[in-house]
Amino acid sequence: MPVEHLKSYWMKLTQIRRFGHVFVALICCCIPVAFASSAAAAHFSLPDWSELSPNNPPPARSYLAMTYDPVSGKIIAFGGFDSTGYLNDTWSFDGTGWAQISTQSAPPARAAAQMTYDSVTQKIVLFGGYDGTNYLGDTWLWDGSTLQWTQATPQHHPPAVTGPMLFPDPNGRADVFGGFDGQFYQLTMWQWNGSDWTQLSPPTVPFARASAAVATNTSTGQVVMFGGLADVNPNNTWTYDGTTWTLQSPAVQPLLVYAASAAFDPGLQGVVLFGGGSGGVDQNTTWLWDQVVATWRHLSTVQSPPAREGAGMSYDAALHRVILFGGQDNNGYFNDTWELVPAPTPTPTPTPTPSPTATLTPTPTPSITPAPRATPRPRPTPHPRPTPQ
Question: Model pTM?
């Protein structure tokens, strides 16, 4: 199958052997981590996922590129892979329905490309991907005022890769980090200046990787990156402040995942991470990076999208919601649309004013019997997806 062919490049047998024992060890540790994260998150109300029923949803797909376009005020989604091949169609979402956009030109069909909004040029920048044969290094620009794609012709560009990480730099430009070129995971970092790519040289950079979850806290200018695929352990959280990367040491961290989805939610004041694959087992957990205490919090939502990898996710500033679309699991591809709904604001209960003549009698403190903990279900031992012959 073509999509498994794409992923077989990423999940090389040497990598699988190297990290097989790591996945098992992580599973053994996930039970106490889950309880610790739940306790850490107990002090604030939690949001919840809600499935939408938009008009005219795109056909099911995974490994699409998706981001919010402030110029048009809509989410833009491009390409991906379905059960028949690689795609190059463009779609917009306005909160009510999806609409396919007819363009004069479009990037060639691909999956695992990424794109982000450059607030300086006010255009979306798309880079990289894989078309079933080639790793791609072309750059395309989306103009939300004309609803058209234009191929850029930079003199310099990052290596042609699949699964790069694109994100807004704290200065508003579009940055790209890493990716996989067919032989090696990359750790170079580049910035788009509107007409050309310039290679950056931060004093510290993350370990080389591809298909990591990345998003930018636009309120504070902190970029957050987690997980991915790599030859060197990617089970770590890095932050970038516009000058250098910092390896974080969170008290709680998600299970190592690749092709997870991430977006910054201003209402939660944190980067939301959802799903992803882990050793061939897709996840459906929701996490929040809390920059204040520099740790991940597990959001125990009542509802959740089914487990998946390769979904598109973006914060829609017009709707004030994180929107998730598409992705895949072992059984096929999704075309469902979900939103992360903020927790309702609790109505404060007025405190009664005691009568001046009342006599306060001390009330004995009752003894508290702790509630028994639920016995967590053991997770299945993850296994790598088969490599096509």
Answer: 0.81
CB atoms < 10 A from the CB of 100, how many? Answer: 13
How far CA 39 is from CA of 122, 166, 297, 299, 348, in Å, comes to: 41, 33, 9, 11, 23
Judge contact between 340 and 322, C-beta under 8 A.
yes
Q: How far is CA 2 from CA 83, 86, 388, 389, in A?
A: 8, 9, 9, 12
Distance CA 132, CA 77 (A): 20
Q: Which of 154, 162, 144 is nearest to 79 (CA)?
A: 162
> How do residues 348-369 score in pLDDT, each as one tens digit?
555 555 444 444 334 343 333 3
Q: Dihedral angle at the C-alpha atoms of 380, 383, 385, 389, nearest 10 degrees?
A: -140
